[in-house]
Amino acid sequence: MMRLKLDSLLYEKRLSANQLSKMTGIRYPTILDMEKNESKAWSPENLNKIMIALELEDISELIEYVKEDGGNEESAQ
Description:
Layout: E1 2-4, H1 6-12, H2 17-24, H3 28-35, H4 44-53, E2 63-69, E3 72-76
Antiparallel strand pairs: 1-2, 2-3
Helix pairs in contact: 2-3
Domain HTH cro/C1-type: 12-62
GO molecular function, one term: DNA binding
Protein name: Helix-turn-helix transcriptional regulator
């Protein structure tokens, strides 16, 4: 499954979900859902806004593939 690395990026950049919401114009509850990986889908527009705000150069800095193996999740970076 695909998973956002937003929680670790915010921690690394010392930003809160509220600050990112203000920087991007994305609703705070949406940012929280994305941070917790509770969103069912991500809009390309929102992903682009986040990449710009966090100064990311590649989508792989924001999204990772996590292999699901019989209940065990393992990151494939």
